[in-house]
Structure formats: structure tokens, C-alpha cells
């Protein structure tokens, strides 16, 4: 007679990670051969970002880019066309697996005086705003790095709209 109890394995209950895809609209605002960038201090480094941010449910992407640029820079812009569609999937770049963003990047024209800058709802990491000559963009710590040459190349003429994929 076998008095041993059967071995049972109890696995811990693991809740699956629910990723949420966040949409955002970013702006490439051009004026006199320069692009408007946000200076920032993020994750211990001084860097630059394109102005823009998250889309509110029910808001068109063109409206989102106008609202975000106005909040962050004080500048009213008109989105002229979609330049690029970019994704960021955190798990592919050492980030959180649930961090997945899709960014629509628009070419925008400034309205009013482009030298009067100063938003009323700046990002927490934002330290300033700067008009940067397009040819100087590749040498900046512009995040994501994959946009630097694309932005600089706008000085050479129109860029076709394209999907950039998952770039950091």
C-alpha cells in the first residue's frame, strides 16, 4: 500500500499585463530654416523634444497637435500635412512592456509672431524653447534620435509621408 500523497504543483496566479496604446501628435514647426524644439531635462540628461503630446479621446489628431503646441509653446500652429508615423514599443528598447505609443508627426506652420513663445501648460521636464537651424539638428540630443536626420533633411525639400516603425 502506497501512503505517499500525490505531488501537486501550485502555480502563482500572474495577472497578464494589459498594454494600452497611447496616441500622440507631435509638431515639426518650421520658420525661416529653423525648427521649434523643446529643451528638456529627462532621465538625467539634457535633451530636446518636438512639441506635442497625447491625444484626448474624441479629439482629431490635427486638433491635438494644435492644442498641445499652444499649451507647451504659446504658439498657434496650422498642421499642413502628416510627415511621419512613429511607434515606440517600450519592451523593444529596455522600457516597460506596457509602454506603447503611436505618434503622428505633422509639418506645421506658425501663426502670429513665432518669436513670442511661452506656453501655459509646459511639460514637467521642459526647460525652455528654442528655434534651431535645421542643419544643426543632427548634432543635438534630440529624442528620439531616429528623427534627427529626417528633420534636418527637410531643409532639402519635401519629405514623403512614411511609416517610421518602432524607433527610439
TrEMBL record:
Keywords: Hydrolase. SUPFAM superfamilies: Nudix. Its cofactor is Mg(2+). It comes from the Bacteria. Residues 20-156 form the Nudix hydrolase domain. The keyword Oxidoreductase does not apply. GO terms for molecular function: hydrolase activity. InterPro entries: NUDIX_hydrolase-like_dom_sf, NUDIX_hydrolase_CS, NUDIX_hydrolase_dom. Transmembrane segments: none annotated. This is NUDIX domain-containing protein.
Amino acid at each position: 500500500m502506497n501512503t505517499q500523497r500525490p505531488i501537486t504543483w501550485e502555480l502563482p496566479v500572474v495577472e497578464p499585463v494589459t498594454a494600452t496604446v497611447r496616441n500622440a501628435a507631435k509638431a515639426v514647426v518650421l520658420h525661416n530654416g529653423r525648427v521649434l524644439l523643446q529643451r528638456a531635462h529627462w532621465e538625467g540628461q539634457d535633451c530636446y523634444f518636438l512639441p506635442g503630446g497625447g491625444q484626448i479621446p474624441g479629439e482629431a489628431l490635427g486638433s491635438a497637435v494644435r492644442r498641445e503646441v499652444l499649451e507647451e509653446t504659446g504658439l498657434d500652429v496650422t498642421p499642413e500635412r502628416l510627415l511621419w508615423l512613429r511607434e515606440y514599443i517600450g519592451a523593444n528598447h529596455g522600457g516597460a512592456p506596457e509602454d506603447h505609443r503611436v505618434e503622428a508627426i505633422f509639418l506645421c506652420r506658425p501663426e502670429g509672431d513665432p518669436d513670442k513663445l511661452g506656453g501655459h501648460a509646459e511639460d514637467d521636464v521642459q526647460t525652455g524653447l528654442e528655434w534651431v537651424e535645421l542643419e544643426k539638428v543632427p548634432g543635438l540630443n534630440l529624442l528620439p534620435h531616429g528623427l534627427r536626420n529626417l528633420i534636418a533633411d527637410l531643409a532639402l525639400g519635401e519629405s514623403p509621408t512614411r511609416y517610421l516603425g518602432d524607433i527610439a
